[in-house]
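Structure first, sequence second, as always.
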């Protein structure tokens, strides 16, 4: 089990009355437990939380008037993983895909998989289907795309990233998802925090990665290579970035870079270990598969007593 101590601060100067929808709270799943959390704003304002989707994305809504506005979120999050040997994982034929997975083989706003079909076939069409082919896509995206802060914008699509050859984690993820979907492999967009990233890339920030449906589970891939897969806390899950933006703003504001800190705790006596890089296939969403021993480990863990989460207005 991995335990994270997480803190997020978001600062804005509001120029006109503004509605915010934040997706910054780690979701609750059988593999991920939010042991304790607290949300506050300055000035103190009413907060409304709504969850929907599968896994459930937690939408935090607030309306703020002109002036300085800060949202602060703190949490302790426990995370376990399911591991598999890559050679044991197969791509699932269309006829066998669960109905809930089908939406992740279609093109979406930032993922024009239909326009990348010929490229995907040319690059990967002759490879044996399976985990190794998806890993080859991940490696191809990482090798041909240069990580460059400021090289893209919130509207940049997979096609644009393919053409220009640079971007940030969001763009890496969109391009990999597009290539997977072009080969009829369900793939989806997930957000988290870039734990373990090279400090030379800048301050800790929100992070985007990919999950591909193989066998009977969703498996994690990070095409940017920034974070160890075991260090990825799930915040949001969707078809692409349009579903899980960490802040959607309906108004006029000025903003500064997020203030984020994340620390992985270590406690060998209680079975708590820091994330490591390795070659196993990693999953934190069993989809329709039966729960495994990792879930039982999380349910049995009592190293930190569970606390009642709080939404505070000041």
């Amino acid at each position: 089990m991995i335990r994270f101590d997480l803190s997020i601060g978001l600062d804005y100067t509001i120029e006109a009355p503004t509605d915010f929808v934040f997706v910054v709270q780690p979701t609750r799943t059988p593999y991920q437990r939010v042991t304790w959390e607290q949300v506050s704003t300055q000035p103190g304002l009413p907060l409304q939380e709504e969850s929907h989707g599968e896994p459930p994305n937690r939408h935090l809504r607030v309306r703020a008037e002109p002036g300085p506005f800060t949202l602060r979120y703190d949490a302790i999050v426990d995370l376990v993983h399911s591991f598999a040997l890559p050679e044991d994982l197969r791509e699932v034929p269309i006829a066998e895909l669960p109905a809930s997975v089908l939406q992740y083989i279609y093109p979406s706003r930032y993922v024009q998989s239909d326009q990348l079909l010929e490229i995907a076939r040319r690059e990967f069409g002759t490879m044996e289907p399976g985990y190794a082919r998806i890993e080859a896509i991940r490696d191809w995206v990482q090798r041909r795309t240069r990580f460059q802060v400021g090289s893209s914008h919130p509207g940049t699509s997979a096609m644009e990233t393919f053409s220009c050859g640079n971007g940030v984690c969001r763009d890496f993820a969109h391009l990999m998802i597009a290539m997977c979907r072009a080969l009829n492999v369900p793939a989806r967009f997930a957000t988290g925090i870039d734990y373990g990233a090279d400090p030379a890339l800048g301050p800790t920030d929100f992070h985007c990665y990919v999950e591909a449906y193989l066998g009977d589970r969703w498996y994690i891939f990070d095409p940017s290579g920034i974070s160890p897969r075991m260090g990825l806390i799930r915040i949001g899950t969707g078809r692409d970035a349009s579903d899980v933006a960490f802040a959607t703003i309906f108004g006029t504001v000025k903003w500064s870079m997020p203030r984020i800190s994340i620390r992985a705790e270590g406690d060998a006596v209680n079975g708590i270990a820091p994330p490591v890089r390795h070659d196993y296939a990693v999953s934190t969403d069993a989809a329709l598969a039966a729960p495994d021993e990792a879930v039982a480990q999380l349910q049995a863990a009592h190293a930190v007593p569970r606390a009642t989460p709080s939404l505070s207005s000041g």
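Margin note: Helices lie at 117-124, 131-144, 158-164, 169-182, 293-300.
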